Amino acid sequence: MMLGSVAEEIYRRAPCPVITVRPCAADVPPMDDALRGPLLFATDFGEASRHAFPYAVAFANEFRVPLIFLHVIPEVPLPEGPQWHMAGDIMRLRENARAVTIEQLHRLALEGTMTCARICRVEFGLPSEQFVKTADEVNAAGIILGVKQPRYAVIASHTPWHTAAEVVGSATCPVLTLKY
């Protein structure tokens, strides 16, 4: 918890991008070596993500690796009791949400001058869990994540439940955080 608090304090306050590598993270090649695997750009379409977007494009272009655009739609909790009658409606709503979000990701991907491959993905669940799970599935070389600066100084070091803290704390690849 203490180490996580210190790391979060640094990446939320540093005036520059911060790369966090957990001790148990996969082997990380030196910066002058080629990355092995795609980069994962985790986005919620907010201002912090928009701020991180040019960095994601620049890194993917520089290292000539694919850039995976990932947005996670939170699951909607279902009411207790039988729900067989709602299953079709829920599946249609999910697929509609997926289609709309994929379109948003494609529009975002076209905003940058990219020479690398673009891959757009939408997942459902908890954002931090899905970012890490997807990074593991695709053997990502890193995760790029925009973070907001906390409004109150005390909060930064005591909120391990925030998405960024959970991703940095559990990712098996380096995480580049960019404060907005």
Task: Estimate the helix proportion, in percent.
Answer: 40-55%
- The CATH architecture designation is 3-Layer(aba) Sandwich
Determine the CATH topology.
Rossmann fold
SS-based structural class? alpha/beta
What shape does the CA trace take? globular
CATH evolutionary superfamily: HUPs
User: Kindly state the mean pLDDT as a whole number?
Assistant: 83
Structure in words:
The chain is an alpha/beta fold. The protein has a single domain, classed as Rossmann fold (3-Layer(aba) Sandwich), CATH 3.40.50.620. It has five helices and six strands. The protein has helices at residues 2-13, 47-63, 87-111, 127-137, 163-170, and strands at residues 18-20, 39-42, 67-73, 118-124, 142-147, 175-179. Strands 1-6-5-2-3-4 form a six-stranded mixed β-sheet, sandwiched between helices. Strand 2 (39-42), helix 2 and strand 3 (67-73) form a beta-alpha-beta unit. Helix 4 packs parallel to helix 5 (163-170). The two termini are 24 Å apart. The relative contact order is 0.27.
Describe the secondary-structure layout.
Blueprint: H1 2-13, E1 18-20, E2 39-42, H2 47-63, E3 67-73, H3 87-111, E4 118-124, H4 127-137, E5 142-147, H5 163-170, E6 175-179
Parallel strand pairs: 2-3, 2-5, 3-4, 5-6
Antiparallel strand pairs: 1-6
Helix pairs in contact: 4-5
Q: Which key features would you list for this structure?
A:
6 strands, Rossmann fold, alpha/beta, 6-stranded mixed β-sheet, 5 helices, 180 residues
